[in-house]
Write a structure and sequence with these properties.
Layout: H1 3-17, E1 41-45, H2 46-54, H3 58-74, E2 85-86, H4 90-101, H5 105-117, H6 126-135, H7 140-147, H8 153-165, E3 173-176, E4 180-183, H9 188-205, E5 220-221, E6 225-226
Helix pairs in contact: 1-9, 2-3, 4-5, 5-6, 6-7
């Protein structure tokens, strides 16, 4: 639901593409609800909802969202806030955890962002979520089982709790190597710097690995003395 998260995703991806060890980086998505109590209103656009919640006119709301639309266009994204519908995100987050189980979490997140910001789909609707899940390789039957139960609800809530523990009060919020954080849709250079710092720190903490051993190695140890 956060327009800056999609923009931040693109900027992080651009930084990662330029990172020499990108094939060694694992990306894991975490759940964070901006409006956990939001009621889904499929017939109301986010522009109308923003105007109502802020006490603005529709014209003023459109002016404010246009600024974000322009930011999105700079990274190749097309936003249509007049089409985007008001939708609670909890079930979409649960579906993201199912996608994580099958190794397609990033693909699903991309599909969710596009469905919400570009295509004007109701991302709280089970049929829509099923279609999106199937499009990235999930089985429709398993998606149905998840959505019609409370499966992964605890995982979503645990992610939200973790976010509070690391000091995330808004999104996007990127944590790298459990030590470095980038808050907001920062410039690509900022993400590149954070990636390099986190990677350098991670390598320092890795234990040395023996690269060659054989029975005739000349080795001395406190326990066995020298093997001659």
């Amino acid at each position: 639901m956060c327009p800056f998260c999609y923009i931040g995703k693109r900027k992080f991806e651009a930084a990662l593409e330029q990172f020499a060890d990108k094939d060694k980086i694992e990306v894991e998505w975490k759940s964070f609800q901006l409006q956990p109590n939001l009621k889904t209103e499929a017939n109301k656009s986010t522009v109308a909802h923003l105007a109502e919640s802020k006490g603005w006119s529709l014209d003023h709301a459109r002016q404010m969202t246009q600024q974000v639309t322009d930011m999105a266009a700079e990274v190749g994204l097309h936003y249509d806030f007049d089409k985007a519908v008001v939708a609670n995100s909890f079930d979409a987050h649960r579906l993201s955890h199912l996608a994580k189980k099958h190794g397609v979490q990033d693909a699903l997140e991309e599909a969710l962002f596009k469905a919400y910001f570009t295509e004007g789909k109701n991302t709280a609707d089970y049929e829509v979520l099923t279609q999106l899940g199937v499009s990235v390789g999930l089985e429709a039957a398993e998606i149905k089982q998840v959505l019609e139960s409370d499966r992964y609800a605890d995982d979503v809530n645990h992610d939200i709790y973790q976010a509070q523990q690391v000091g995330a009060r808004g999104v996007p919020f990127f944590v790298l190597g459990s030590k470095y954080a980038v808050s907001g849709a920062q410039p690509v250079e900022t993400f590149k710097g954070a990636l390099n710092a986190a990677w350098t720190e991670w390598k320092k903490e890795q234990p040395l690995t023996e690269v060659a051993t054989d029975n005739n190695s000349a080795v001395c140890s406190p326990e066995d003395g020298c093997e001659i």
